[in-house]
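Let us begin with a simple case.
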Amino acid sequence: MPVTFKIIPKRQLILFTYSGLVTLQESMDIVAQSALDPQHQPWQRHLCDLSAVTEVERDFLRLMQMQAKIAETFQPQAHDKIVLFYAPTKAGQMMAEMARKSWEGLNSVLVMVQHSEAQALAMLDLPEQNLQALLQIAESPA
């Protein structure tokens, strides 16, 4: 499957990793699956690694419907839900832009796009300089 997730409680974060051809259904399924994980918390930030995306399904109407369903799962918080896309490639940037546009006007989701891995992590106030270091934190004992 070209979409996976890893919940990193130490960083209050869910890391979604996309690769290859990304379909809307896979994206929706993985968000739903992450919400069922015992480590999931509604306030966790989402970091979407789009660095290995090569192609994106382009159905903007369906994307908007999907994002609306996802937004429904976000419980009201005292602050916005943060979704940051790390998108260094053209295909990843296209996917991030589609997602950003589909969430425009929703007060509950703050969408950010970053082309630099280190800057993406810094925007989330994470001390790690790269995703590999972040994954090592996820694998280390509590």
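The second case is a distinct protein. As before, the sequence precedes its structure tokens.
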Amino acid sequence: MKFRAIILFLFLFAIQAAGQSGSQSTETPPQNSDVKILSKPNARHPDEMACAQGTVRLKVAFLATGEIGKIVPVTGLSFLTESAIEAAKKIKFIPKRVNGKNVSIVKSVEYKFGIY
């Protein structure tokens, strides 16, 4: 009888341990975190302006949905700005979280163009 009780105890313990290890593999997102850039594609130098140098600064809306929203040029040469905007549209990111919810924010993003 004691043997059966020990086997039953070990069986129940193994089931409980298996259930806990399964729940540990699922991570819950943090309650608060800043936007995390996963990839920022390089802006292509326009072929007709291969010798142009400068920095284009953009204000980019990082939406709570995980998409890029409105992009507004702040500074930079006009002929490089379009290339920077096209690259910024392809940024991949994890949205900012506040109190466990994704929120939209606007951040400054820079693209530097130089002679290669």
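Residues 2-24 form the longest helix (23 residues). The helical segments are 2-24, 78-88.
Keep these points in mind for the review questions at the end of the chapter.
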